[in-house]
Design brief:
Blueprint: E1 3-6, H1 17-31, E2 36-39, H2 49-57, E3 60-67, E4 73-80, E5 85-89, H3 91-94, H4 111-122, E6 127-131, H5 142-147, E7 151-153, E8 159-160, E9 172-174, H6 176-181, E10 186-190, H7 203-207, H8 215-236, H9 248-260, E11 264-265, H10 267-274, H11 277-280, E12 286-289, E13 293-294, H12 303-314, E14 318-322, E15 324-325, H13 330-335, E16 339-342, H14 350-353, H15 357-375
Parallel strand pairs: 1-2, 1-12, 5-6, 6-10, 10-11, 12-14, 13-15, 14-16
Antiparallel strand pairs: 3-4, 4-5, 7-8, 7-9
Helix pairs in contact: 1-15, 8-9
Amino acid sequence: MKKCIFIPDSFKGTMTSAEICSIMAQAVRTHEPQAELCSVPVADGGEGTVDAFLQAAGGKKVVATVKGPLFEEVPAFYGVLPNKTAVIEMAAAAGLPLVGNKKDAEQTTTFGVGQLLRHAIESGCKTIILGLGGSATNDGGCGAAAAMGAVFRRTDGSTFIPVGGTLQDIASVDLSSLQKVLSDTKILTMCDIENPLCGPTGAAAVFAPQKGASPAAVKRLDCGLLHLAKILQQATGCDISQLPGAGAAGGMGGGMAAFFHSPLQSGIETMLDTVHFDEMLKDTDLVFTGEGKLDSQSLCGKVLSGVARRAKAAGVPLIAVVGDIEGTAADAYKAGISAVFSINRTAVPYAQAKLRSRADLFLTMDNLMRFLKQFAPQF
């Protein structure tokens, strides 16, 4: 084997993508000490996204002090890749862990996210990738827009920074200053869910309860987001009320589309494009991917489906090493995955299996390499 790529998703609650890459590489290196090994840790836009991009593409981490979800000063960060593309995790400035036991979806803000965006732009970044996920907010991205120059007014003409509980107070919004800041910048938003902005599967109904919202607050937040959608349609012509993914991160998906003209796109596709995965596949003998559980959702725009599509197009064999397999995996084979292997070597409950997952992953990879060396010499 001359070249091998590792590009797994995390095994949720067990191993990060970076840990899995390291264990896979250790096993392969044992049998192929001269092979070129390329690791591409994957994250879905939430915590760990910046580190994943930096490890895969290189670059540096930038630290900045911004407003946290409760308008307090907090240290935050973003990554800058070698090509001056900035990678920002929304959670770094508006994440749920930052509020501790003070969860309140009606009072939290994305203002700090906007400050990170502005910091990256003023530092010379012309392209920004923003990962949605893990937020404590439900303000539809109004805070981020305000930090970038948007001016929100009430019916009496007074200005304010809307939060989830005051979205219905917005009478108008002036985006002229924001548009000037954005004039020479492209923002891509990583969004892997398709929840709409409002309704029974919207931002408030599905995600606000875990952010501290009571049933009554959920109704108020939902009404506020619907009102925001109407205001934004008047101001921008963009209707986010039915946009798939608009409900992500407390309506931040919709806010990114309307305020920032940012396309909402698959996290894995964004990462694959950013690290030039199609180029990486050239002269590659084998690709390893994986996730915690292979099931019916695995091929619906997630890591395995994105990697499989590109590996198949390049004619490169792809092996999925997973924690568990649900069903026959027939769809995985159709999608372009050459083989699927579970690391569960002993039938034990998950609570026990997770404790031995690292050793089981190494042993499974070691077993695979022994087979490939003996019976598939081209690898």
